[in-house]
Write a structure and sequence with these properties.
Blueprint (H helix, E strand, L loop, with lengths): L2 H10 L3 E6 L3 E6 L2 E6 L9 E4 L2 H7 L5 E3 L10 E4 L7 H17 L3 H7 L5
Length: about 120
């Protein structure tokens, strides 16, 4: 996945906003909270960082092409970085981006979720 494809996908998720920060990284937020970061890697290859459930964190931490996210995981946060996009299938990565969006949006207040049209059943 390229950064353009990453940005296009994240743009389509509900109530997202985009900002460039942290050394020209593509940062995506839902309700003002970060759920995905494109960039943030020292190499010139694309890298993508996202929040995961505890189970997915344990699964992905040892998968080829994935690692606990620099800076975040060392502070106990359940964030993973995909640093080798040839190792992940697009469908798999899209699932994790959607899950990150969902997990972060569930951390918003119920009022904010309703206001943004999130998690309404």
């Amino acid at each position: 996945m390229t950064y353009d494809e990453f940005n296009e996908f994240c743009r389509q998720l509900t109530a997202t906003s985009y900002v460039v920060q942290w050394g020209d990284s593509h940062v995506w937020k839902v309700g003002g909270k970060v759920f995905a970061i494109g960039g943030w890697e020292k190499s010139d290859k694309p890298a993508f960082t996202f929040k995961t459930s505890e189970l997915n964190f344990e699964i992905l931490r040892d998968e080829p092409g994935f690692r606990p996210a620099p800076y975040m995981a060392s502070r106990g946060m359940k964030w993973i970085q995909l640093y080798d996009t040839t190792k992940a299938k697009s469908e798999q990565f899209i699932y994790y981006l959607e899950e990150s969006h969902r997990i972060v949006s569930l951390g918003l207040t119920k009022k904010k979720q309703k206001e943004l049209g999130l998690n309404q059943e």
